[in-house]
Amino acid sequence: MQQGMMRKSRTLAVVDGQAIYRRGLVALLEELGYRVPIVAASWEDHIDQSCRTRVDLVVVNLVNRDEAFAAIAWIRKEQRLPVLAIGPANDREACFRSIRAGARALLDTDADERTLRPALDDLLTKGIHCNGYMEAYFDTAGRVPDPAPAPAPAGNLLDTLTDREHQIFRWLLHTPRLTLVRIGKLLGIDRCTVATHVRHIAEKLGVRGRDGILHFAWHHKIALGDHRPPAPRTG
């Protein structure tokens, strides 16, 4: 009874790129007694909605792998919320990378009431849920093992950016949903010029497009606070 009352007072967010699975997952969570005010198809959508709504925990589907890992890392670093990752348990790389990104519970894609309930309860009360999947990736001290060296510093690549490219990079990182038109107005240049700078930034960082630039930032642990954009132009 007490746990049932606790669930009704808890709010969850779901980040899932598959519409059919997303609807089923939300319905199951609501049947368990949780409120789900944020239902996002992408991590950028989650960022936008979470500016207006506070939740206690985020459930992320690993269907879009790189985007899911970036979402988990951002949620853990910027929002400091517990994350439950859902993905195929036989995909060891995806499981490991989700834990490395910050997930503290991991369930297979066929998760049901029997497996979801204890995982969510543990996350909300203990901050972690160690089932058979998680135990395979944690050592006895409760730390995530690191089989690979840390990513190379991004400083050398960022040093190749021009002053204007640095400005645009900071705007892209600080406000991912900002349009190129809006960035251009803030900097006093037209949209085509902004698009050209974005293309040059991506080429210098060895990635593709805006999403690649954002993923580069999360991958190299570039904090938002270290790259605040300049004050908007006035007049």
Description of the structure:
By secondary structure, the chain is an alpha/beta fold. The chain folds into two domains: 2-135, 3-Layer(aba) Sandwich (Rossmann fold); 155-227, Orthogonal Bundle (Arc Repressor Mutant, subunit A), CATH 1.10.10.10. The chain is 51% helix and 10% strand. The protein has twelve helices and five strands. The protein has helices spanning 2-8, 19-31, 43-50, 65-79, 92-101, 113-126, 132-135, 155-158, 163-174, 180-187, 191-205, 209-219; strands spanning 11-15, 35-40, 57-61, 83-86, 105-107. The chain has a five-stranded parallel sheet with strand order 2-1-3-4-5, with helices on both faces. Strand 3 (57-61), helix 4 (65-79) and strand 4 (83-86) form a beta-alpha-beta unit.
Layout of helices and strands:
Blueprint: H1 2-8, E1 11-15, H2 19-31, E2 35-40, H3 43-50, E3 57-61, H4 65-79, E4 83-86, H5 92-101, E5 105-107, H6 113-126, H7 132-135, H8 155-158, H9 163-174, H10 180-187, H11 191-205, H12 209-219
Parallel strand pairs: 1-2, 1-3, 3-4, 4-5
Helix pairs in contact: 4-5, 4-12, 9-11, 10-11, 11-12
